[in-house]
Amino acid sequence: MSQQTEVKINDIFYASWGYDQTNIDFVKVIDISKTGKTVKAVSIGQKMIDGSQGFMSEKVAPDPDHIISKEPVTLHIKNGYSNPNEIILRGSYHYSTDGMSKHLGTLWRYDTPMYQSHYA
After folding, report:
1. In DSSP terms, which residues pair with 103 in a beta bridge?
2. 29-60 pLDDT per residue, tens
3. Domain count of the chain?
4. Structural domain of residue 61, as residue ranges?
5. In this structure, what DSSP letter does residue 100 have?
6. Calpha distance 82→66 (Å, rounded)
7. Are strands 102-109 and 87-94 parallel, antiparallel or unpaired?
8. pTM
9. Fewest C-beta in 10 Å: which of 9, 34, 39, 81?
């Protein structure tokens, strides 16, 4: 698989975070700055791909048509931590279905369904 070294409109990135559970958040790039150093992105929903991962866990994929927050956020384009050829996004993005709460984090380019776990 070739590594994408630039960000394009409609690219999807994800964040994985949590304590005692694994949360997956997705954002979709809607604009790129003229300098190429930042993007505008909106948080998007997810859909379950595989529910056979075990009790209260599943694999999820982005749902690009389900926009969680219509208010775009600005995220910084950075080189990856362990792989400088990898592109990541850094900044605060909306993560809850109310479209108001924000989470500060690192987002990686999405390419395959992600494991997620939860309580109730």
Report:
1. 93
2. 999 999 999 999 999 999 887 666 666 778 89
3. 1
4. 12-109
5. -
6. 32
7. antiparallel
8. 0.87
9. 34
